[in-house]
Amino acid sequence: MKQHKLHTIFTFTIFVFFIFQCGSGVELTELPIGGNIIAQDKSGTKVNLKSFPEPVILVFFGYTYCPDFCPNTLAKIKVATESFTEFERGQFRVVFVSIDPERDSSETSTKYVQFYIPNAIGYSFDLATTNQIVKQYAAYVEKTKDGLSFDHSTYLYVLDSNRKTRKLIKSTDETEVITKTIRTLSGNTVQSK
């Protein structure tokens, strides 16, 4: 009887462990949008996301004059990664692509994102290149009627070491989604096809 009771407790413990393991997992898939960016920014710097050593890149579209979504999303990434060890901080990079090339330079875009996340970089491309990258990522960008602001999508595009898009994180997702996605993908041994 005692052995049966121990077996039942052991089985229940294993069951609970697997339930929590499955529940805390992050679903990653290869998406047909986004991916590597190869272009020259307005300062003449050649950009290739594959040149970054970090296995995880979070691509975010925005502009430095953005009144709400951009600062809120960047603050959320900051909170999501505050508990990271020094090693974990070296496993990801935020790449901010300005959708306002008329007002933003790469330098101001970088200063803007580094205010929130030190291991981040900002780029500003000419309008034609910006439009091409926006199309590649299937992002939504539309200038408002007053010409001073933009309506734009606020997804974080999560790229793996092959610079394939593996997940879209919504601005409404909890910070834990960002934390778990970076941790999972930086340790993910599944190779993209």
TrEMBL record:
Keywords on record: Copper
Pfam family, one: SCO1-SenC
Annotated Thioredoxin domain residues: 28-187
Family, as annotated: Belongs to the SCO1/2 family.
Protein's name according to its UniProt entry: SCO family protein
Native source species: Leptospira yanagawae
Lineage start: Bacteria, Pseudomonadati, Spirochaetota, Spirochaetia, Leptospirales
